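One such shown below:
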Amino acid sequence: MTRRRKNTSTNAPTAEAARPVEPTGKETPLGTFGTDPVVFTVLEVPDSGDEGTEYRVYVNDGPAGPRLVCWFTSDPEAEPVWRGAWNGDGMCGRIEAKARKIIANTHSASSV
């Protein structure tokens, strides 16, 4: 298994700007995890392009509403891009693992 590294890209602010901070309503919700009041939602982005299907994880922990945590593609070797303060957070590994599990379960259920 490939060890994942912290996103240290110098163009992270540009990459962040390319993704909506809040869901647009065009994404397909795949599932949620966490416990109230902190709930993470995994969304699949339609027509993601040549890099494979894009997935986004949002967190909703109260009145501010959902906010982007990270995004990654269907390529299992692709590094997630963590937004803002999430970059390097101790929860990143668990968030990514749970999101990828939801994605895998959704796709295996749809192929039955």
